[in-house]
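> tool_call: predict_assembly(chains=two)
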Amino acid sequence: MPTGIQTPATFEPTLDSCDDRPVVLSAHDLTKDFKKLRAVDRLNLSVCRGDVFGFLGPNGAGKTTTIRLIFGLAYPTSGYVQVLDHHVPHDRQEALRHMGGFVEDPMFYGNMTARRNLRMIGRMRGEVDEERITEVLEMVGLSERGDSKVGGYSHGMRRRLGIALALIHNPELVILDEPTSGLDPQGMKDVRELIRTLGRQGTTVFLSSHLLHEVELVCNRAAIMRKGRVVVQGPVSALHPTANAVKILTGDQRRALEVLRGLVGAQGVDEDEEYLVVRGGDELVPEAVRRLVADEIDVLAVIPAVEQGLEDMFLELTARPEEKGPE
Amino acid sequence: MSHIGREFVKILFQKRTYFGWVGLFLIPWLVTIAMRLSNEGPPPPGEGGPQFVFLITGNGLYVALASLLSLIGFLLPLLASMSGSQTIAGEAENGTLRTVLMQPVRRGALLMAKWFVANLYIAIGLFILLASSLIAGGSIFGFDRMLLVTGQTVSVGHGIGLICVAYLFALVAMTTVVSLAVAFSTLTNSGLTAVAAALVLVIIMLVLGGFSVFDFLEPYLFTSHFNAWLDFFSDPIDWGPIGDALANFAVWTVGLTLIAWLVFRRKDILS
């Protein structure tokens, strides 16, 4: 396990885990049951000031429910969320003064303009002047459509408006659920740049996304959720597969599989869609290559564990059978 | 902007708001024109509808009473159900409830603002109905001294005052229906389901009140008291039925609103 990664067994949301930065958002044994379904299961999480924090997980992992619990839209079965000094749900109203964002598809009053929506909803948390409305509409690229009725907006435009509403009061914590969903490539690029800018300005961003590439591009820390629990969290740069597996692509995968199975020190060899996956660590690479070359098998590519990214870790953790899952 | 102001602006941006109000404006004109064109006289005592409906042709003041009598059984409860059901379920259905509740607002305060504005919608509707009735009745049949149920007559001004009080009574009655719809609205994420549930319950109560075998239930059904406003048109005013009705409406309104609050304050917003 690379340094800096916290699994549920070792993770405690303390100041230490944020390198002396204050914890802006934390979840403490957060649990949510829907009848017989446990959607969120003793979830612990900490997000530090200035983090752009990626929140990953497959469909049904409990990400959206977790965000609803953070916003106080749903009530936890047990546990709580803390936003700065405020507990959710007990002190939900005060916590919400420090947060902005949206969950799922942001929805607005379709028979009103974007500007009126921002004015009306924005004023629920304090005064909003027209200059600020214009400013946030420009930030999300909606300045030309600000006076159009939201009912005519596309899915992507509503997302942009959701981001505008999230930012209108300059909150310390911005929570965005799939913010680039439905956007065109330029829109995705713009939103990612906006998120990076927010991070640089010291705003803490909690970003739920299915797009691993997006998280790698914009986040400095991330957590992966599976079946209601955070199975791993840490700096994105340190998130690599825990199995320390080497991926090898050859000119004859079938023969190479036979050769590598006899490799001393290898804990197992599997085939994925493209590569042979040799478990056992990067130190096996020289010997593996020597064996393959000796058997006149062309070695086309070798990807050491350290170069495998978030996607490999995500797939490894989320595809892991129940009985082998981290506790 | 206060919660009430914001909620009121929201209903002003909805087309259905105006459909209801336009309907309430048109109905007195239809009644007045129909009576003007009709040559029918009042049916013999004991047959047909209320006698005073046929007094319209001699005194436009009765248009307001005929309109209220004809609408309090169905159209007004329908509008009250629609208005109340949109408060929570309608917004949940549109997804805007979560947008609103992600702002630092107290759920109880928001619910009460929505309840108030749902009643304000009905109050404005009743005002439109009253104004339209007086204008239509006055312009086509003119005003005259009002004949009361007990046989005395009162001045036009006194008559209009009694009509206003009757409309206020109707507003209190409809507050009960609004509260019922708001309570259902907190239990579902479908505006249509909340409207249907509230309206079906009102109709069930009306049906129960229509059979003598269920007479023992009558004091408890709020629908049984909808027409207690007729007692304002006696001299002296019979306060007994009016007091019973107001007490009944108060119990239902407080009880249903309390249920709505208890449900909504802990409701998971999953829509």
